[in-house]
Predict the structure.
Amino acid sequence: MAIIETGATLHEAHRDNHTHRDVNGGWLRPAVFGAMDGLVSNLALMTGVAGGSVSQQTIILTGLAGLAAGAFSMAAGEYTSVASQRELVEAELDVERRELRKHPKDEEAELAALYRSRGVEPELAREVARQLSKDPEQALEIHAREELGIDPGDLPSPVVAAVSSFGSFALGALLPVLPYLLGASALWPAVLVALAGLFLCGAVVARVTARSWWYSGLRQLALGGAAAGVTYALGSLFGTAVG
């Protein structure tokens, strides 16, 4: 157990040393993983097609088609998923809101019982529940957090989820196509750029996890490289068979 050596008062020492990472990832996690998904899927798609010894134009068209299809698919999936989740939560909140309106005393007693189950003295639990139940909106928020584990004022937005997923996936999927758009005629520049992007994404993920940046970067580089290698081999095999 580490001992904090500081001349600050106790509350200041606790404030300065008792901080946590964002365990939910905030915006960083979905953005990075969306870009990583675009990188891996489009790199694998392009290398698979390139393994079949097709023209440069075909590889570019494949990469752009993969970018568009993947980005729209991600956006549609995220929108539907988040919208469905939000509708379910709002339906449950309506149920709780009706119960608070029809049976306020029962809901207050339920809240007091919850606090008692967590070790609060019975009399204090009843008083806390009574005071918190004075404001219907505050009571709804507390019941939602305690019973449903949600914050009514912080529900996810389907539009934000869809737009962020579209943008991050498209950005990641663009990297392996970019060298071709800038004039490259071989596959290896696209692979190098994509692998560098994978390493960077993996390193950024270290901000969310407790791993070191180089470990996360190398792990993602290895996984993306393996996916590209397998699809290139399959493309070569199928290309030979079809040819």
User: Anything to note?
Assistant: Confidence is low (pLDDT under 50) at residues 1-8, 22-26. The first helix runs from residue 10 to 17. Residues 43 and 142 are 47 Å apart (CA to CA).
